[in-house]
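seq:
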Amino acid sequence: TFEPAHRIAGFKPYFFASLAQKLAQLKAQGMDIIRIDMGSPDLPPTDEIVNTLVDSARRVDTHGYTPNGGTTDFRQAVAAYYQQRFNVTLNPQTETLALIGSKEGLFNLSQVILNPGDLTLVPDPGYPVYKAGSEIAGAEVYLFPLLKENGFLPDLKSIPAEVADRAKILWLNYPNNPTGAIAPMRFFEEAVEFAHRHHILIAHDAPYVDICFDGYRAPSILEVPGAKDVTIEFNSLSKTYNMAGWRLGMAVGNAQVVKYLHTYKSQMDTSHFAPVFDAGIKALTGDQSWLDERNQIYQQRRDIVLTGLREAGLQVDTPPAAIYVWAHLPEGEKDSIAFCNRMLEETGVSTTPGIVYGEFGEGYLRVSLGTATHRIQEAMQRVVAWRKSKA
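struct:
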């Protein structure tokens, strides 16, 4: 037998990998499963984006290796998007980097910044890769809670000074997964000031900035003066442009950290297929008006879910952004895994237990809006009927 490296020996497969096996078993038994668990967009990109990919792939000169960290044109498109969308100026060569999806960059950041024994500040609930990447790098993880009474924002003042002084990375993510919460500019200003004071790198995971509802428009933390000195922001075309399977994202901000990521990637991957970069350029610099129509579809789904879950006895705040609804389990229900399992087995509706995102996620479940509207409607009808049958 071959033993795994100690750093991964204790890791279990990602939650959605194990969920897929259970869903396959239930489908084999003839159950009609409605998946509102995984944050994967069901709608396609525009024809213009797809046609750019196809036209580029038909050319004879687009099939070789591309520059590590992205073509010059793609990095310029990232900078143009940041200028146009956030009024943030980036140097395409030194302050932008193409990623094979932003998850890769989130994981790699821990590997290039953290040494064994270093400390990292991770939100709970939070996207699991922040903690996993830190632990695989051998770092100590300090979890700070995101609580409903604080709008699911961190209370940075409650982090002990000796912890803050030791910490190397502060992980933030707004609009937030899993809670759908948003961060006002004054919070970002406070976070940047905190990072300067304690010499911490802020890693801001921002893939949902362009999925906003009810007139809200999410900012970039890089809009804060002085943010670039202490911040690396991760963004992605997956959610913004319905390009999840295309695996195209970017890291932007602090030039030193961008360089570390670039060096690490040069040892690890051989960049992306040129036609994917070309389509990414079209997405970033082309007509953005279609995003409003797409967001209207998500908003309609959000409202169907809010109505259904409330009728089923779950407490839910209305998320102003992102593609998730974060719902508190009904009165008397404490175990999110048990509740979501029962719901799945008895209704065929698959949601994500809150505990997957950390211990402060216990008592909640997450619904994703990345499923056809009529199926979300049916899912809510099933859940309401199921809850009423138990009353």
